[in-house]
Amino acid sequence: MTGKAVEREAEDAKARVKAALDRQGEHALLDVREEGVYARGHCLYAACCPLSRLELLVRDLVPRPNTSLTVMDGGGDEGLAARAEARLGEMGYSDVAILAGGLEAWAAAGFEVFGGMNVPSKAFGELVEQTNATPHITADQLKIMMDRGDDLVVLDSRPMDEFRMMNIPTATDCPTSELVYRIAEIAPNPGTRVVINCAGRTRSIIGAQTLINAGIPNEVVALENGTMGWHLAGYQVERGNERKPPEVGREALDEALARARAVADKAGVEVIDQETLARFRDDGDSRTLYVFDVRTGAEYAAGHLAGARPAIGVQLVQKTDSFMATLGARVVCVDDTGPRALTTAAWLAQMGWQAYVLDGGMDAGPKQAGAYVADVPEAEDAEVGSISPKMLAVANMRGTALILDFTRSLDYAKSHIPGARFAIRARLADTLPRLDQKDMVVLTSGDGRLARLAAAEAQAAAAVPVKVLAGGNAAWRRDKLPLADGTADAADPVEDDAFWRPYERSDGVEDAMHQYLSWEQGLVEQIARDGTAPFKVLVP
Questions:
Q1: CA terminus-to-terminus distance, the chain
Q2: pLDDT of residue 76
Q3: 515: how many CB neighbours lie within 10 A of its CB?
Q4: CA-CA 20 to 30 A from 260: which of 4, 92, 150, 464?
């Protein structure tokens, strides 16, 4: 194919994406490179779906198998897109095309290339701040207020697992989607200043603007640059806390519901009934439907609407492209009382999604309990046996097993089986032959599913028997067997596998923080040049 033809294909791909964003049909664009590679440069609306984990991710990202779908890689001779096309065909996806020339062709056609992760959400947050002049204070200003004993509350708008890792002193965890729901109980005095923070910028901005849009009487400000800004100013963070806001009473709930409904109405969110949701589901052959329970993970596990996926509201807005790849799809938000679903849907609508809220929430249909389990295909038939954790421990002690761990590098660095080699599944055919394979090769991953999916590929590349660790690393930990940390034994580059955020690094943290914050602030100009984002920011 000539260079001009490749560029025309890129132009056609962009046109399909633009049409879907304009709600003229549906389309999904998947970038099948590893996350770390993707983060160095990608198309704005290309969802990251690495070939290494494609089976684990794609049915959630693109639930309708006849969706118009384009896959892409970096270009050149990578061949990842062709492998993804074949694998998607085996999974029943019937309308799959490859973007010829990949990202190289996209850039050559003059289109914008974005670095980082979750760019649509990050760029949207910066546009919200610019459009609304969202008020903010610096870390130094906050520290002065604290030392002075001012009447203020600091609310961390991230989920509890992130709050537990690090928080600003005195802060209470209250994810963005919970803010309108809980603010009357947290700050009943209108004279109390409310400071919203996150790790960096986006959720601080969106959190503060959530309360401002809702019209609460308190002064609300975002903490500029969040916990990163606090750290860079030389102040200490706390770790291991689990401070939660108080429960919501009837009067506070009624107030929250009225405020959240007013914002959702202004954003164009439609509240639907159970019959409409059933009709949406009946349209499954022609329209994609995402149904998200936007409450906490614990609430979801205790009981949720049948067919709903868990997506804490703040994370759904923060990482939209990690939950949904089909542009032009319908999105229904569900909770138990209304404010959290309305708040989340209002932000999604401003980002260009066709967002709805289910009236009655948890009472609108049959319920299920338990954690969410993604729909993952059975492993390819291969004559590969399993090995128990205790038997592997013996083999590992004797030095007779080469252990390959397909866990994400971020998790591998925290803990792994001693001597296990971190490996990228999509590169297995190249990586495995260059390693000392010993008497056998043992594959493992978090829960063992990814290792089982990789078994046939490993068997084709290995010169010795291949086995899969039964139950994966989770089973190894349950048996309380030894663990190691670090990345010294990695067989493939950990920086290719995952995007390491500044606070996840072991060195160069401050420089990485400065670069990250500067990158976020530069996104508004870049999305303006790209010209595809359908953002419609509310102004209260």
A1: 51
A2: 79
A3: 12
A4: 150
